């Protein structure tokens, strides 16, 4: 394994910037080239070095993203590194058995199949997807409207495999003309499609507003205390008074946005806390506000019931200007761990309502990390996707990217108000129209003009067909390599 050490060392360094907190998009392309080349130099034994490079780089780049004590964090990173190693294992075992350019497909097919399966069954859903590292490259991001995020990961990892193929065999450009031409042609089509899609005009807009969480009234520790079963009546009454003060600030900020012309106002996830016995009166206050101000109001509610096994109902309720409640949606996918342990089971369907301003849908925070669940919005031809959310400082500049990809996949505008993170408003092409860092402002109101009409996408029709094709393609190429 000595010969591969220089490639593993540089690959480790670049991998720190290939995913996680410190992403530099080009590093995501180059780091795998070096790790693949290390395998070509030393064969299967180099896989130990690749795992160590992945473990070390992930340990650095994921620090703070995974809230866990040191030992648990090390174990989690080891498991992620072991999972991330699988495409390299597939490459080490299968690629040497395949002649020519076809061998370049082993790594991207294995990686895409792994990402797809993880997004379906892994507790952390689509976290770690290569597509997220390419945020900001808008023409490439448009590929998600056809293939979902999995097509972007495929193209990036295929490029790494092709670069390594040419590095190994300098004459590859001459000896594999068809394969190289096909690769270049597909890239050309991807970028042409993305560029053409971005030329579409914005169209008619509607003023919307995100209203953020007011700091200084209640602490995070008190919020967690309210969700426990350790409340006596005195503590409960003190928390109730603070809940009312939080809600007063939210209504006051919302009133200012309504007076400024906002037609749709959205609060962050669980931003309005209320004990179960007080929730009815709070909802009536929301109904009256929407009617008096003639706005659509989506409130993220933390409904708390004392002395039960599942005390927390995390839901979002949409009220219309006529005062009627259009839907009451309960978060479907709570964050693994603490939230999942205390949460009332969620709704199987997104909250969806047809309005004169377009079809509106709502999901809550972690729901958005599961592409096939949010595809309901595309199938229902939703125009505006509302995503109340709560983050923490370390993930704030990363997590909003997931929601932007859901907007591109399903052809919706997006409004995502966030407590302790980055609020964002985008159109259906992922173009950011407003952005607000919770920690950079005291006046946490974010107005935006969003297109009233969504666009239909291929992904909303065919779903994860491309990802399923990659799974089938990997099985086929593995069978081919085994037989030959």
User: What's the CATH class label of the largest domain?
Assistant: Alpha Beta
Q: How many domains, as an integer?
A: 2
Strand percentage: 15-25%
Nearest-angstrom radius of gyration? 24 Å
> What is the third-level CATH name, the topology of the largest domain?
Nitrilase/N-carbamoyl-D-aminoacid amidohydrolase
Mean pLDDT: 94
Architecture overview:
Helix 1 packs parallel to helix 3. A hairpin with a 5-residue loop joins strand 13 (422-426) and strand 14. By secondary structure, this protein is an alpha/beta fold. The chain has helices at residues 5-15, 25-42, 46-61, 70-94, 106-121, 130-133, 138-141, 144-147, 149-168, 172-175, 177-197, 220-226, 233-259, 276-293, 338-342, 371-379, 396-410, 458-462, 465-483; strands at 205-211, 264-266, 272-275, 296-304, 312-319, 325-330, 351-355, 358-362, 384-386, 389-390, 413-416, 418-419, 422-426, 432-437, 445-451. 51% of the residues lie in helices and 16% in strands. The chain contains 19 helices and 15 strands. The strands form 3 sheets. Strands 1, 2, 3, 4, 5, 6 and 15 form a 7-stranded mixed β-sheet that branches. It folds into 2 domains: 2-199; 205-454, Nitrilase/N-carbamoyl-D-aminoacid amidohydrolase (4-Layer Sandwich). The model has no long low-confidence stretch (mean pLDDT 94).
